[in-house]
Amino acid sequence: MRPSKSALLLRWIFSGEKINYGPRRFASLSSNPLIDDSDNLVLVEGKGSSRTAILNRPSSLNALNTSMVARLHKLYKNWEDDPAVGSVALKGGGRAFAAGGDIVALYNLIKEGNLEECKQFFWTIYSFIYFLGTYMKPHVALLNGITMGGGAGISIPGTFRVATDKTIFATPETLIGFHPDAGASFYLSHLPGYLGEYLALTGEKLNGSEMLSCGLATQFSPIAKLPLIEEQLGKLATDDPSVIENFLGNQGDMVHPDQNSAIHRMKILDKCFSHDTVEEIIECLEMEAAKTNDTWCLSTLKRLKEAAPLSLKVSLRSIREGRFQTLDQCLIREYRMSLQGIHGQITGDFREGVRAKLVDKDFTPKWDPPSLGHVSEDMVDQYFTPLSAFEPELELPTNQREAFI
């Protein structure tokens, strides 16, 4: 039996394995437009005092496009304004929660020179993430399956995140020449120690128990119990977060990461990833690997050396700045960074990374600049520079939203 398209994509994301996909394996991904007006991309369940939104692009691992996020925003706004609705839940249809933004569609738009639709996508999703982060009703994200990039962005800022034994989290943007965005510089920077730097730079994955352990998830449930939790959650006639928290706590399980998890390596992780520069981080890992031949150090080094050099430096600075910024400040900064990434004026790494990983599938991206030594401070600084007068900054309703929370 031939592996499914989603299985193939998962194998690339988390192993970097070079796979013979066969002809047109990702045809439906690349042919799906970033803008699709179909309401069927987000389904709705629930009655009474609860509503559940369901991401409905299972063949593409629920990769997000502009229309999906715009519909979510509209639904959430209506539910927030409706006094009869007490709580809102979000889940993915099929085997994934959401694999992030539809990067192949973005790639095609960039290739066509259609940057306006790319900008619209980032503006739409970042605006929704801020809306979720300031949502005035309890929100429960059921993170079953792959939860990556933008998928984490539209869930982690909410009130509750339920991970399962099938949850797989990652922010692998440096491996495609981009930067962890969709609010990642905010939530990763607030993880214990320097775990955020590790996840941002390497794109390494976490499972459900690891997400619970570090705080990315608020509860854990075996997948077998999820249907019952969904059913009972839908019957809770309340807008009180403490009631929902108690319910989820009673239904959830206590789990612990296995002994090989990075969570159990925080001492060496903090020692290496606390350094000021990517070069120093790599040097520290190399020294530790030379002393102990630690397989974790060796695999971490391998992932860092596969990533785009400019993306590594930009991402490290982004996480460090995120520690001292609010969610809205992080999103406004990330919008600037994302526009730099798609414009290609500094580098074409994003387009090249998607080409190599998902389009041509040769898995040999030619990064520009090609090494850390070729990355100048000016290049990094440009990602963080305010946009010009001809390019509007991301506008978020901070005064309106935060006055009520």
TrEMBL record:
<dbReference type="GO" id="GO:0006574">
    <property type="term" value="P:L-valine catabolic process"/>
</dbReference>
<dbReference type="InterPro" id="IPR029045">
    <property type="entry name" value="ClpP/crotonase-like_dom_sf"/>
</dbReference>
<comment type="function">
    <text>Hydrolyzes 3-hydroxyisobutyryl-CoA (HIBYL-CoA), a saline catabolite. Has high activity toward isobutyryl-CoA. Could be an isobutyryl-CoA dehydrogenase that functions in valine catabolism.</text>
</comment>
<dbReference type="InterPro" id="IPR045004">
    <property type="entry name" value="ECH_dom"/>
</dbReference>
<comment type="similarity">
    <text>Belongs to the enoyl-CoA hydratase/isomerase family.</text>
</comment>
<dbReference type="GO" id="GO:0003860">
    <property type="term" value="F:3-hydroxyisobutyryl-CoA hydrolase activity"/>
</dbReference>
<keyword id="KW-0378">Hydrolase</keyword>
<dbReference type="GO" id="GO:0006508">
    <property type="term" value="P:proteolysis"/>
</dbReference>
<protein>
    <recommendedName>
        <fullName>3-hydroxyisobutyryl-CoA hydrolase</fullName>
        <ecNumber>3.1.2.4</ecNumber>
    </recommendedName>
</protein>
<feature type="domain" description="Enoyl-CoA hydratase/isomerase">
    <location>
        <begin position="51"/>
        <end position="384"/>
    </location>
</feature>
<dbReference type="Pfam" id="PF16113">
    <property type="entry name" value="ECH_2"/>
</dbReference>
<dbReference type="InterPro" id="IPR032259">
    <property type="entry name" value="HIBYL-CoA-H"/>
</dbReference>
<dbReference type="GO" id="GO:0008233">
    <property type="term" value="F:peptidase activity"/>
</dbReference>
<comment type="pathway">
    <text>Amino-acid degradation; L-valine degradation.</text>
</comment>
<keyword id="KW-0645">Protease</keyword>
